[in-house]
Amino acid sequence: MKLSIYGTHRVIAEKVLPQAAKKLDNTPICYDNELLIEVDVLNIDSASFHQIKTQANNDELKMQEIIKNIITSQGKMQNPVTKSGGMLIGEVKEIGKDYITDLKIGDKIATLVSLSLTPLYLEDIISINITNEQVKIKGQAILFQSGIYEKIPNDLDEKLVLAALDVCGAPAQTKKLAKKDNTVLIIGAAGKSGILCAYEAKKQVGINGKVIGLVNEKEQVTLLKELGLCDEIILEDALDSITVYEKVSALTNGNLADLVINAVNVENTEMTSILATKDLGTVYFFSMATSFTKAALGAEGVKKDVNMMIGNGYTKDHAKTTLDILRESKKIKDYFIQRYV
After folding, report:
1. Could you count the other beta carbons within 10 Å of the beta carbon of residue 208?
2. In angstroms, rounded to a whole number, what is the distance separating the alpha carbons of residues 308 and 274?
3. 114, 167, 240, 252 - which has most CB atoms within 10 Å?
4. In sequence order, what are the residues at sequence separation of 6 or more whose Cβ sits closer than 8 angstroms to the Cβ of residue 265?
5. Is-above-0.70 flag for pTM?
6. Is a pLDDT exceeding 90 seen at residue 311?
């Protein structure tokens, strides 16, 4: 068998990369160019978790059954509806002789590649935390040489780290995209990724810039005010594109947003993002519920010349950027501990 740094040797009966594969070989044997991890917790991505919870009518036992069926049938945790996965935290169990790393057996790490391409062998699901989207399991996972990871730092709780790093691409991309004096709209600003993006956007736009948060619950408005992350807050359904557009227009004197970050976990918010963006502005679709067909054709249909960016979960130093936010902001850290640990 020819081993690949991208893990194609684990793909069953197809000539595709692991993320696109229908099924992976999840045998918990460490090949020479792999890392074997004893898994503690899966952090299911928000769009996937929301879909599974809805399908199961909030019943934890039914959710366990759905997750078990996905992993058993595919050899990985890739939601067949959303096509997304999440990430995991675990302990290094074995290191292949050709795997290049500074890790040691017993190190605790969080993987920074999607569960949708990670071979995962499930022995049992111990529990599901409905609140923080984390699933405690007994099982093993494989990390390919091309995969990235972060050692769990000593100064932060490991479940806090897992929760934050699951969305670390979003605030890191925000750091790159938001410019001084920009107006930034964050759709889903009270969610995990939304909060981190709002903090980073506020840093980048400066005192003359503006961060607008869009949420759909009064409790979320209260939360954003307590965290002090947004200059303006819109309470509205993200599915109501025209109303959101009108409210953003009113708050910006008709100029709209330079940058819109879509961080919600529901479908059909593409046009809300596009309409709220000024011509030649940028929409960053971090949401895994995004339909890029709807976004592309929708922008054309309303004659909007905007730059649309796929929510790449990786950018340089993305883990460091996110962990630094937790170190810099006691309010965010305390809230994340309360909400996700």
Report:
1. 8
2. 9
3. 167
4. 46, 47, 49, 50, 188, 191, 287, 288, 289
5. yes
6. no
